[in-house]
Amino acid sequence: MTIDQIEAKVRSLMPRVVADLEELVAIPSIAFPGYPEEPVHRMAERTLELIRDAGIVDAHLAEVPHGYPPIYGELKGPEGSPTVVLYAHYDVQPAHASQGWTTDPWTPTTKEDGRIYGRGAADDKSGLVSLIATLRAFDGKPPCTVRIIVEGMEETESNLEEFVEAHPELFQCDMFVIADMGNLRVGEPVLTTALRGDVSCTVTVRTIDHPLHSGVYGGPTPDAMMALARLLSSLVDEAGDVAIEGVTGGPWEGEDMTEEDFLAGAELLPGVSLLGTGSIGDRLWAKPSINAIGIDTTSIADSSNVILPAASAKISMRIVPGSNPEAELDALVTHLETHAPWGAQVEVQRIKAAPPFLAATDGPGYAAAREAMTEAFGTAAGESGSGGSIPLLQTLHSVAPQAEFALWGPEDTALSRIHASDESVDPAEIERMIVAQALLLEKLAARASS
Ligand SMILES: [Zn+2]
Question: Is residue 84 assigned to a domain?
């Protein structure tokens, strides 16, 4: 199909695409423990029906040892055509009322700005319907062999890495299309090429053997909570940059994000300043960042006039593309073990070292993906990073080391508010992504046969 034919076909599919998206957003497919299981199973079944209806008739719920099943299927292309694996996920984040939703998260609502609001409208049900519509665009006869994998536990303890490792043959391909990303702004195409990794640990600080009366002993006696606070504050410098010796960081060379777009999503409180130095792109995608994400000590309700003997915090550090997660975690642990004030005792427990990801940008598949984005959007495609971590990508790379990656989707960073209240997606962005995906399949097939 030519681009004109693809665009016309996709335009005719859009009412169906929007209807599918609205139907799926209305299903609260939260795979987190403690949430009802029925909607997640209903979501899996309905997604399966849509995929079969779009032409992958052998699609099925895959067997997994635990958790909600991924959906897998294959549709053969012409003899000798390349193989593409399409990825999206059908589970979503919870949507607590306390997040401040202005419409019901499970009632898809189109507002005056033309965007569709609801939990999962962007992340990742928009990516999911874009893949299904890409199959529909070819009326069941894609120019490449298409394999689809739709995960059911991406937002929680994913079971897909194990599945991939147990069935590497299902993931052999020339290119992975990961439809769980997006442009920085609507209408301005980018491919995501770099994702940060994530390391974490807990640190416990102890100063005394047991609680002491703060009147009788306070003054000379070091307090574990205050010692922990000082230790935590040593993790960043005055400007807010990570101050840990030996961690990796550098400049970002792709498209940058404006401070304005960043703040539109982040909504800092009045008077609160941004942290760190360098461009927003540097700080999000090329330098590490660190946060204390939990704390255990005596609660305010249980507090009395005693000096606390122990306090613990969980620390999460995002690490930059290209860095070694174990080495980065080592640097964090060493810092914590050597920077506590007052000789306080420190115990660190390592929790996680999830690898970052750097997509190869020098292969023919990536070039085809970039061309497809440029043509579908009518403006040159750039490269962006993603602050989030997807350890699955590294697993896919390890089972199919020759395969290239296209990381993209309809979730724009400026307005989609994924994981937050009033998540939304622009249907025109979904339409352009379907065109880009269909063009990519055409281009990969054309390259292989030439
Ligand atoms: Zn997602």
Answer: yes
- The CA-CA-CA angle for residues 113, 115, 118, to 5°, reads 130
Could you say which of 7, 22, 91, 431 is catalytic? 91
- Backbone phi, then psi, for 58, in 5-degree steps? -90, 5
Round to whole Å and give the CA distance between 413 and 174. 28
Cβ neighbours around 372 below 10 Å, total: 28
For residue 385, how far is its CA from the centre of ligand 1 (angstroms)?
15
Domain that holds residue 24: 3-195+356-449
pLDDT at residue 388 in the model: 75
User: Are 232 and 290 in a shared domain?
Assistant: yes
Show the low-confidence residues of the chain (pLDDT under 70): none
CA of 237 to the centre of ligand 1 (A): 32
pLDDT of residue 331: 98
How far apart are the CA of 448 and the centre of ligand 1, in A?
Answer: 31
Q: Which residue has the tokens 């040892």?
A: 65
pLDDT at 242: 98
Residue 180 annotated as catalytic? no
pLDDT at 14: 98
Domain of 13: which CATH number?
3.40.630.10
User: How high is the pLDDT of residue 33?
Assistant: 95
C-beta of residue 173 within 8 angstroms of C-beta of residue 298: no
> Which chain residues have CB less than 5 Å from ligand 1, an ion?
123-124, 180
C-alpha closest to that of 443 among 373, 388, 369: 369
Domain identity same for 163 and 232: no
Q: What pLDDT does residue 341 have?
A: 97
First to last CA, the chain: 16
Residue 266 has a pLDDT of 85
Known catalytic residue at 154:
yes
pLDDT at site 26 = 98
Residue 217: inside a domain: yes
Catalytic residue among 20, 124, 154, 423: 154
Q: In the prediction, which pLDDT does 389 show?
A: 76
Distance 217 CA to ligand 1 centre (A): 52
Q: Do 245 and 141 share a structural domain?
A: no
Determine the distance separating the centroid of ligand 1 and the alpha carbon of 175, expressed in angstroms: 19
